């Protein structure tokens, strides 16, 4: 069973390691275009950990770190948050861990944090991720067109009780 815990300082180097020898497109695919600069560094991740309305979580399968995911724009008054910067290690790919991580994040968000609505954005070309999100109950709510059609994306959302 996958477990999530808040990111710790030593986790930054794990994420940087997962990005070693990867290109800019890889970084932008999982992290978007605005937050991190290529090449990814521990300092960038540490700075992101200090954003008050965000929480970065590390995912573990037993003792093995298998991914990370961020809840951003957490608003306890509106009971909403945005899921972003979802990354699986290469070794975790194809093992169903993405769905497990997402389901645990949904459970934590709705049951422990009292949130009622989650959103996320996904690039239209990322069919595997879209299927994973749909399997967990997310529905497409918006289409976003980029100057470069390769980066067109969807906003997907999930409301409490609909998962």
Automatic annotation (TrEMBL):
<feature type="domain" description="N-acetyltransferase">
    <location>
        <begin position="2"/>
        <end position="161"/>
    </location>
</feature>
<dbReference type="InterPro" id="IPR000182">
    <property type="entry name" value="GNAT_dom"/>
</dbReference>
<dbReference type="GO" id="GO:0016747">
    <property type="term" value="F:acyltransferase activity, transferring groups other than amino-acyl groups"/>
</dbReference>
<dbReference type="Pfam" id="PF00583">
    <property type="entry name" value="Acetyltransf_1"/>
</dbReference>
<protein>
    <submittedName>
        <fullName>GNAT family N-acetyltransferase</fullName>
    </submittedName>
</protein>
<dbReference type="InterPro" id="IPR016181">
    <property type="entry name" value="Acyl_CoA_acyltransferase"/>
</dbReference>
